[in-house]
UniProtKB/TrEMBL annotation:
Lineage: Bacteria, Pseudomonadati, Bacteroidota, Flavobacteriia, Flavobacteriales
Gene3D superfamilies (UniProt xref): 3.30.300.30, N-terminal domain of ligase-like (3.40.50.12780)
Ligase listed as a keyword: yes
Family of the protein in this entry: Belongs to the ATP-dependent AMP-binding enzyme family.
Protein name as catalogued: O-succinylbenzoic acid--CoA ligase
Alphabetical list of InterPro entries matching this protein: AMP-bd_C_sf, AMP-dep_synth/lig_dom, ANL_N_sf
Domain of life of the organism encoding this protein: Bacteria
Amino acid sequence: MKANPNWYNIHEAFRLNGIRYAFEDLGEIGYSLVKEGEDFEIGIGDFLMDWASEKPTLEVQTSGSTGTPKTVVLKKAQMINSARATGAHFELSEGDSALLCLPCTGIAGKMMLVRAMVLGLRLDYVRPSSDPLSDTSKGYDFVAMVPLQLQNSLKHLDRIKALIVGGAPVSVMLRNQVKTLKTQVFETYGMTETITHIASKKLSDESSRFFRVLPNVNISQDDRGCLVIDAPNIAEDSINTNDLVDLVDENTFQWLGRADSIINSGGVKLVPEQIEEKISEVMTHRFFLTGLPDEKLGQKLVLLIENGNLDKTEVLENLTKLKNLSKYEIPKEVVLLENFAETSTGKILRADTVQKIR
């Protein structure tokens, strides 16, 4: 008799919004959410029906925050391995409570469901928003957010035991704000191809400046200085990223920025993410840097800020006072936009935002 695939094994402690579901229930509850649920519940329903199918793989769409969205095919068995690695790394236990506040259209939301089913978590879900904890008064052992959600949830974090934040870099200002909290906050590194995070760093720990990889993950660099990931439990082949890194040792690295976002301005190569890190010490509004065509320089460094009421001259004057900025790292132009293009959770879609000013 052929054994059932391992994704059929739903932990008996698994609860979704307080209700226990077995594997046999997933297709029905998924169909119900798709047909009768709210708009954000459709993604949850679609995923549950996909998980309940006999097909051993899932198709997952990338967010498109760093480029054109694409479809990635993932094995359910590898998603289970990722969930177990997360459970071990963050010391999650059967019966722990968790909150899903990310869209289930992307890998981060889907994996919260997988972790709950595999590890036996009591998972609640709320509508994905930029301030998700305002929609619930409950406390949770484990939550995943993007940086904007974390920023808007600071006043509620006394209800959260451990929180992982990913999808975009955490600013210096936000890192400083979480250092004093009792909540354990971890910044994570990962992508759809790695089935969410393969490394993390504890933001409340002064000594934790670098990402440390999870078990069974090996890292190296290619000839561009970009991270190469070997993680046989979650990916059959090596994953060559576009992320520039400094390798500290075989388990630890510092993320520097993306190779495909380097700006060549007058022969000087600028890494926007490194400059953003410096600027974030003084910026109170959402912002990012990009390169735009320039007749003299080839590309010029441009600062985009989400706020229409700032004084551009004053912004540039404040940046020139930053001692850690070189003259090449001071933007040549400031562009004010009323709103950035973003996902439902507030993750900035850089390429779409830049298109607004081209």
